[in-house]
Amino acid sequence: MAQQATVQSKSKNTAEGQRIRIKIKSYDHKVIDSSVRQIVDTAMRYGAEIHGPVPLPTEMKKYTVNRSTFVHKDSRDQYEMRTHKRLIDIYNPSAQLIDALMDLNLPAGVDIEIKM
């Protein structure tokens, strides 16, 4: 029982520390990987503890449209949009790291959601 108590106290200490959770979304997997690399390099430069990047499931939306405008219902085109997602957790960030992440210049087409 003493071992369980120490394990629980360690997890509480990590939960009490400050954490930044960054969710990144993009339609292009190459762009999202380069953006994640920039964020991780910046966080490592300031000595923060990083968990990730964790690849989240790719969301696929499929659209089916008729090729013709009037008849020929059997002739259709199918299109899909893939949304790639990544998750990065940064534990115990410093003020300089937060400023550096805010000043980071990421390519267009990348959606970033930051939670403290």
Automatic annotation (TrEMBL):
Q: Which GO terms describe its cellular component?
A: ribonucleoprotein complex; ribosome
Family annotation (InterPro entries): Ribosomal_uS10 (IPR001848), Ribosomal_uS10_CS (IPR018268), Ribosomal_uS10_dom (IPR027486), Ribosomal_uS10_dom_sf (IPR036838)
Q: Which Pfam families match?
A: Ribosomal_S10
Q: Which PROSITE patterns match?
A: RIBOSOMAL_S10
What is an annotated GO biological process for this record, any one?
translation
Q: Which UniProt keywords apply?
A: Ribonucleoprotein, Ribosomal protein
Which positions fall inside the Small ribosomal subunit protein uS10 domain?
21-115
- GO molecular function: any one? tRNA binding
HAMAP family reported in the protein's UniProt record: Ribosomal_uS10
The text of the family note is: Belongs to the universal ribosomal protein uS10 family.
Q: Which NCBIfam families match?
A: PRK00596.1 (NF001861), rpsJ_bact (TIGR01049)
Q: What does this protein do?
A: Involved in the binding of tRNA to the ribosomes.
What quaternary structure, including any partners, is listed in this protein's UniProt entry? Part of the 30S ribosomal subunit.
| Entry protein name | Small ribosomal subunit protein uS10
* Organism field: Candidatus Spechtbacteria bacterium RIFCSPLOWO2_01_FULL_46_10
Q: What phylogenetic lineage does the species belong to?
A: Bacteria, Candidatus Spechtiibacteriota
Gene giving rise to this polypeptide: rpsJ
